[in-house]
């Protein structure tokens, strides 16, 4: 058959091949764009997780300091009760007034030191709690930024499937919002 020996090409086929040789296909652009977005998403996700870990660390520190403060306050109260008992014994038994007064002074001195220690632990607990809140503050913005990046990846995928270039603009806009929010989170 003579027609099997010849490849007859139409103008349309030649135009498609010429376009493919000189222009980067849309699917390659979308794949590259999606890879960049996935990398940005991984970075934003890591930073969001890091803020949570820092916040948990400081919150644990606040709880530990609060427990130490509670122990110190309890010990302070015990020493103060002992002081009151020593003063009462000195008042009720004049023969042991000197010993009772000495014990009362000893317990009062211990109580003052314990009160100072308990107040210091309370301050440390409050400081650690404030640091926890500060460490967690960028997390919400990073979570929203990650959502916008994921929407951008989804729009890019839909663009690849439907070949609707205007969706790629939406993906770019969503990605820009995500990147902007992640930058704002650290300012």
UniProtKB/TrEMBL annotation:
Domain of life: Bacteria
Cross-referenced InterPro entries: DUF4337
This protein's UniProt keywords: Coiled coil, Membrane, Transmembrane, Transmembrane helix
Coiled coil: 104-131
Record field: transmembrane: 30-49, 142-160, 166-186
Name listed for the protein in its UniProt record: DUF4337 domain-containing protein
């Amino acid at each position: 058959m003579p027609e099997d020996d010849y490849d007859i090409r139409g103008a349309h086929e030649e135009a498609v091949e010429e376009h493919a040789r000189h222009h980067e296909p849309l699917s390659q652009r979308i794949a590259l764009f999606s890879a960049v977005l996935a990398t940005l998403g991984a970075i934003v996700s890591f930073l969001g997780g890091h803020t949570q870990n820092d916040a948990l660390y400081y919150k644990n520190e606040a709880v530990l300091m609060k427990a130490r403060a509670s122990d110190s306050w309890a010990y302070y109260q015990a020493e103060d009760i002992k002081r009151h008992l020593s003063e009462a014994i000195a008042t009720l038994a004049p023969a042991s007034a000197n010993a009772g007064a000495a014990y009362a002074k000893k317990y009062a001195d211990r109580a003052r030191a314990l009160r100072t220690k308990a107040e210091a632990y309370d301050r440390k607990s409050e400081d650690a709690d404030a640091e926890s809140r500060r460490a967690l503050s960028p997390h919400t913005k990073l979570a929203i930024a990650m959502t916008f990046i994921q929407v951008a990846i989804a729009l890019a995928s839909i663009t690849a499937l439907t070949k609707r270039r205007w969706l790629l603009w939406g993906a770019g806009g969503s990605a820009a919002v995500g990147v902007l929010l992640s930058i704002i989170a650290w300012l």
